[in-house]
Amino acid sequence: MVIGGGLPPVTATVVLFRLMVELHAEAEATAL
Predict the structure, then answer these.
(1) What pLDDT is stored for residue 5 in this prediction?
(2) Which distant-in-sequence residues (6+ apart) come within 8 Å of 12 by Cβ?
(3) Residue 16's closest CA among 1, 32, 31?
(4) Tens-digit pLDDT profile for residues 1-32
(5) Distance CA 20, CA 23 (A)
(6) Which of 22, 21, 26, 19 is nearest to 4 (CA)?
């Protein structure tokens, strides 16, 4: 599966992981 117009799988995974971490941090901050 190609994500982002031909990004390497590793790069796509890292970007996705960082995005999830940021969203999780924002969700916790909002909950508090």
Answers:
(1) 66
(2) 3, 4
(3) 1
(4) 555 566 678 888 999 999 999 999 888 888 77
(5) 5
(6) 19
